[in-house]
Design goal:
It is a single chain. By secondary structure, this protein is of the alpha/beta class. It has a single domain, classed as Metallo-dependent phosphatases (Purple Acid Phosphatase, chain A, domain 2, 4-Layer Sandwich). 35% of the residues lie in helices and 20% in strands. It is built from 9 helices and 11 strands. Strands 4-5-6-7-9-8 form a 6-stranded mixed beta sheet, with helices on one face. Strands 3-2-1-10-11 form a 5-stranded mixed beta sheet, with no helix packed on it. The radius of gyration is 26 Å and the shape is globular.
């Protein structure tokens, strides 16, 4: 059958149209999600910074009771999460780890822990790391929360390097910060050792990190949008600032060398990267006696 010319043209046009429709459906769908600005991604929240629960440092029963009391108080604050800046226990053994975990289960909010030197020894080993990971969990990791990245690092692998483990940790830390910058996500670092106590160029001592490693970490933090570096270890409240980064060591619930009350820091984070913190005292507990030069 020979179709009239005008009908053949109409059918040809319809066929071309159909091919175009089918071809378009085969292409990847265009992302029509509206672009989200940094300020829209970041949302206000609050969290708690605890330092050195260190069961056994201020007297074992004292530290158990202050930790329990702090958990109850924190549960009433409606914070988003709590971080503990290392030295969860004073002596790393089955009993202290079990007691720590038992009390930690009382939190009604997520709790993220960094390891301290008392948790994995001053010179960590493959065995001490294995035990910590078995009893407590990962010793370094990151989470994302309301547009921010919280990076929990293992400062013992910076203070006293462990073959292979420190290299893997360094690579992870660097890449995690780079990834956060790419996502325009401000970073909060949670650790045990502070980078420095008084000045960025101070000599190495018991309470800080080696100068070369310190500079490397500070440079990484500045380059990749770190806004806060939270630590413990010093058993005294210290606040420093470095090129827009807040470096804060908080009070403990075990023993404070500066005779401050037992307590923790409540942080308030605004969507515009404005971060403030205040001290909250654990009520009803006396400060243990501090021996001169105790560490």
């Amino acid at each position: 059958m020979i179709l009239p010319t005008i009908l053949r043209k109409k059918l040809t046009a319809l066929a071309v149209f159909a091919v175009c429709i089918l071809s378009a459906s085969a292409l990847p769908a265009k992302d029509e999600t509206p672009s989200i600005t940094v300020s829209e991604k970041q949302q206000p929240f609050s969290f708690v910074q605890m330092c050195d629960t260190q069961l056994g440092m201020g007297g074992y029963e004292h530290d158990v009771q202050t930790f329990k009391a702090a958990v109850k108080q924190i549960n009433t604050l409606k914070a988003d999460f709590v971080v503990i800046c290392g030295d969860l226990v004073n002596k790393a053994d089955d009993k202290s780890f079990a007691d720590f975990n038992s009390i930690k289960k009382g939190f009604l909010l997520p709790c993220y822990c960094a390891p301290g030197n008392h948790d994995i020894e001053n010179q960590a080993t493959a065995e001490s790391l294995r035990i910590y990971r078995e009893k407590i969990g990962e010793d370094y990791y990151s989470i994302e929360h309301k547009g921010y990245t919280i990076v929990v690092a293992n400062t013992q692998l910076w203070k006293a390097p462990v073959k292979d483990e420190s290299q893997k940790h360094d690579a992870w830390f660097t890449q995690t910060l780079i990834d956060a910058k790419r996502k325009k996500s401000p970073v909060i670092v949670v650790v045990h050792y502070p980078l420095f106590v008084s000045t960025p160029d101070e000599a190495e001592g018991y309470f800080n990190l080696p100068p070369a490693k310190r500079k490397q970490i500070l440079d990484l933090c500045v380059e990749n949008g770190v806004v806060a570096f939270l630590a413990g270890h010093t058993h005294k409240q210290i606040t420093n600032e470095y090129k827009g980064i807040q470096l804060v060591n908080g009070e403990t619930t075990s023993k404070n060398f500066d005779k401050r009350p037992m307590g923790f820091r409540l942080w308030t984070v605004a969507g515009d990267k404005n971060m403030t913190h205040q001290f909250v005292e654990v009520k009803g507990f006396r400060q243990p006696v501090v021996k001169h030069g105790e560490k």
